[in-house]
Amino acid sequence: MARIVVIGPALQNIYMIDHDDLKPTAIGEAAIFGKVLVGKSVEIDKAEYSVSGSGLNAAITLARRGHEVILLSNIGRDAAGEAILSVTDREEIDNSYMGIIPNHATGTSVTLLDSKSGAETVLTHHGISRRFGNFAAHDLELAQPDWLLANSIGGDLEKATELFNKAHEMGIKVMFRPGAEDFRDKNALLKSLAKVDILMLGKKQASELVPGAVLKELLYHLNNYVKTVIITDGAMGGIAGSREHEEIYRFGIYEDVKVRDHTGAGDAFAAGFLAHFCTKKSLRAALIFASANATSVVKKIGATSGVLTGSVTLHPMPIQKL
Which CATH number fits the domain 3-22+45-321, given the four candidates 3.30.1490.110, 3.20.20.10, 3.90.1640.30, 3.40.1190.20? Predict the structure, then answer.
């Protein structure tokens, strides 16, 4: 098993779940939750409390696959922060490097979820969760990991580049899954990829960085920056290619299931891929496990409730070597 540092947000998540009051009502191409009106009190069927955040979600997947995981994330000195620390202790994730920042709130999100359709709206206060300035290259020297997974860096590409350069200097492999804020400065984002070994992003994100209208074009251009690239395309699956191993795979979804909650699906795919790939599994095998892990997560409410644990038998899925 590998020793992996994960940097990314950690938040508390509160689910407000209902079977009729949150029924979506279409308005053109958009929709609203029809019975939630300003000034009205709505009785919700169920409330659930959990944790989320792209950093913490990824750390949980990796820890449940037996890897030694160190989480770099910031929380406040509050009840939400205590809930996150409790989960990291239970999942055997090293939280000794986490920042506990006084006078700042832990990130918290509230998910309004229609239990019939799976439609959801997420209200988020990021608090301290998107700030990473207190982490430094020295943390990698102390932790001595085999891999660094940056699962969104809150737009702080200067910090990302600092960590990636240090990782490269130390022989640490880097996987980067940029978040929406990381695309604010696309030139800086492209420059930050110089020391990245695996890049994962969505098709729309890829098209913002490089020319191309189809997945294969986007992959070809991004492979000029990063040796291994994964581009996902929602229900259409995605494409992955390794310049190092000279192989490309086009993959569909693992299986068609009823989606109960989309939260954490991308994190489950990214961390599921790394969990397999870093143990010298093939690109193909890692993609299959990543897809299975993401599918398992969306079948349950919560970002990590469905994360695969222990040994699991995987069935075949649509995947083709190009």
Answer: 3.40.1190.20
